[in-house]
Amino acid sequence: MQSLSNRKKVLEQKPMSFWERIYLPAIAKGLSITIKHFFKKIPTVKYPEEIRPYSKNFRGQHSLKRDELGRERCTACGLCALSCPAEAITMTAGERKKGEEHLYREEKYAVVYEINMLRCIFCGLCEEACPKEAIYLDGHHVTADYLRKDFIYGKDKLVEPAFDITKLSQKTSSN
């Protein structure tokens, strides 16, 4: 194959010097790096006793948040599932029934909301795509388990525990 510039590429190999042939400088350089690392203090964390602090942008386990009144924020719009590159999020939307206004924020809500933690790459795109700020990646680790089916997290593991704001205000006023 001929080059486009019609120039020939000429490679010249100059002969190696005596020191290059015996590799002594390369060996000395490698040993100096090894000796430097030998005397450095290694930052060891003894895990159960000491817990290493994580950075503020650590992406851990997913959680579905509630609003100030304790209602689920998720409206099952599906933007989190669309933005997920690993296709780890699945959901089924449903209509809110009469009398469920205290449970769900909007007319439409997620009846089934599942995240497959084995597929999730913890990129945070679902968190960015959510217009209602319903899904967050908290600073908790995804726990280990024995069965694959236990890594499919449903609403039972994802939704924050509900609290009653009226009982909370009664407790603070009685104190």
Automatic annotation (TrEMBL):
InterPro entries: 4Fe4S_Fe-S-bd, 4Fe4S_Fe_S_CS, NADH_quinone_OxRdtase_chainI
Positions with a binding annotation for [4Fe-4S] cluster 2: C84, C120, C123, C126
GO cellular component terms given for this protein: plasma membrane
GO molecular function: 4 iron, 4 sulfur cluster binding; iron ion binding; NADH dehydrogenase (quinone) (non-electrogenic) activity; quinone binding
Classification via PROSITE patterns: 4FE4S_FER_1, 4FE4S_FER_2
Residue numbers binding [4Fe-4S] cluster 1: C74, C77, C80, C130
Protein name: NADH-quinone oxidoreductase subunit I
Organism: Sphingobacterium lactis
Gene: nuoI
